[in-house]
Amino acid sequence: MKGKWTVVLRTQGKDLELELNNALNSLVAQTYENLLVLLMIHSNNEKTIEKTLSFIKPFQKMLNIKPIVVRDKQGNRAHPLNVALKNLNCEYLSFLDDDDVYYPNMGSTLIKALEDNKKTFALGRSINVIERLETNITGEEYLYTVSKAKRPYQEFSKPLLLLENFIPFNTFVLKTSLLDGIKFNEDMTYLEDWDFLKRLILKEKFSIIQLDTPVSEYKRRNDITDTYNEENFEKWLKSRETTDNQLKDKETVIRVGDLKHIKSFYENEFEKQRVRIVEEITRNPGYRIWDKVINNRILKNTVVKLVRYIRGLITK
Amino acid sequence: MIKWKYQEMKNNPIHIQIILYFSSDDLSKLLSSIKNLEVKNQPVCFHLIDQSENEEEYKKILKQYQAFRQNRNITIKLTKQKNYGFGKGHNEVYRKNKDIYEEFFIILNPDSILHSDLITNINRYIEKLQDVNWGLLELKQFPSENPKNYNPVTLESNWVSGAGLIIHIDAFEDIGLFDENIFMYGEDVDLSMRMRMNKYKILTLPTAKFTHLTKDSDVSKESDFTRVHKQAAELYLRYKFAKDSDVEAYKKLFGEEDPHFEEIVRMYNKMKKKLNKRTYYKDFVDKNQDYTNFRWVM
Question: Are B59 and B27 in contact, with CB atoms under 8 Å apart?
């Protein structure tokens, strides 16, 4: 029998058909056999709790699901994860939010990598998915996939992770022996997953195997439900400050090779920003007219003549 | 426009054809998901057809089939037939069973896990789309999707995948079933083109989902068998629906340096010879459509 793998699945019991449905179906499809799902229902609304428990019933025929209802500390994203950590009895652990999905190979690929390489942390690659809420001709509301693309490959580097949150929460499996008392920081509104990872990598037992294999989908919605919208930006900055401050006295070794990864990360980020700005500029109607003019030989000449003429008038 | 008469489906079983080819490893997950389907009072009949032409393989399938407990609403029929490939294989099963089919039937890949609400969702869509002149309704693959777009409101699509597909019987008969010149890959695009040429709509159903355990989701890791068949089919479809220059353009795209170039062209020539009539379809060569240029690239 292979070692038990627990997936901590966090939900608030909202959008059951649209989101939790997909997350659970992705777990049903797992090719790794010894799997337990700890479903953390974080809600104090009895109707929501009841609805969620009833929703998971068909899945329980195909999947080993243990639901745990967490009624206190509503809105605290870290709290249900800490409750889950207290209920662990397994060799391998991973996390999933109800709006994301695993690929069928997630557990089998990463656990095999952990075992074959005798490491404590296995990291895969994620696919970025953008969705939006749509209504179709049948009157049904559903999530339409706007785009799907592999996240740029980023070589793991400890110092880089201390600087930037580049590991999606649903792309790794770890050995529970690595936890050794580590908890999620309940003082943070956001970025609790990043803070948790930072604590993990500072452990002596931490050793990583990284694979270039897609194992999950990291979904974002281009509407107000997106965590990183402008409204939440202040809270996000505050969380960032908290995690930075809490670890400010910790020490770690920086290898010269790490600097290369840090440089490439910021180069990619810069490129992303550049593409975004160019897209914004090219969407501007004024720019589009100007672009057409300068790419047209006749119009370009006319414009050049006109500019010279105006310049002449100004000089006079 | 023909308006399909919606029939009360409750008493008429939904028939689902699944062609197996050395699929015994995939079968346990599929059967377990069939057992878990929410069908309410809707009878569903699965036709499993083994095309492996291998006794050992058939015995493995038979064992799993016998262990499955059928009930009043879910029945499974297991048969075997010669390895006709995908399209011809489904045509054969359809011809044998069409007298018991009503309005539509479904084809599905064996490497699938059915989502428990699939039948409920299919019935809901069929009811809501009764005024639409549809020929094909595509079930949504999960989690990997086909690299193509569909209209988010009308749900209309350029082509639909044969991995999970609802086929309207009248439209299917009207266009002459699957093209039997294609052994595997591309027959779904061909079917979609002919449906569109005959003014039948093809739609993607976003919430009628099944998990497709595709082994070829990463194009760079595709087997040579898959790639050769896909590229030969692409050439054939261009020959069938477009111009010679489009065929040549595609040959240039994968290049003579390709180690399988000769094999691909040989396979294409074989299919081409069997084709009775070329039909130019103006919408086939459209750079915005995935199947012509980079249909299988994510």
Answer: no
Closest CA to A212 of B212, B141, B220, B222: B220
Collapsing DSSP to helix, strand or coil, A54 comes out as: helix
pLDDT for the residue numbered A245: 87
What is the tens place of the pLDDT at every residue in B16-57? 999 999 999 999 999 999 999 999 889 999 999 999 999 999
Q: ipTM of the assembly?
A: 0.86
d(CA B268, CA B262): 10
Whole-angstrom CA distances from B145 to A249, A251, B81, B141, B183 are: 46, 44, 30, 5, 23
**Whole-model pTM over 0.90:** no
pLDDT in tens, A165-182: 999 999 999 999 999 899
Distant-in-sequence, close-in-space partners of B263: CB < 8 Å, separation ≥ 6? B228
CB A126 within 8 A of CB A151: yes
Chain B nearest-CA distance from A137, in A, is 6
Q: B36 vs B100, B113, B114, CA distance in Å?
A: 25, 10, 9
Which conformational region is residue B85 in: left (phi greater than 0), alpha (psi within -120 to 50 degrees), or beta?
left
Residues of chain B with Cβ-Cβ distance to A22 below 8 Å are 142-143
Contact list in A for residue B36 (CB cut-off 8 A) is 58, 61-62
Burial of B173 (0-12, 13-18, 19+ CB in 10 A): exposed
Nearest to A95 by CA among A119, A123, A69, A70: A123
Interface of chain A toward chain B, CB-CB under 8 angstroms: 17, 21-22, 25-26, 28-29, 58-59, 61-62, 101-104, 134-140, 142-145, 148, 214, 217
Q: What is the pLDDT of residues B115-158, one digit of tens each?
A: 999 999 999 999 999 999 999 999 999 988 776 778 999 999 98
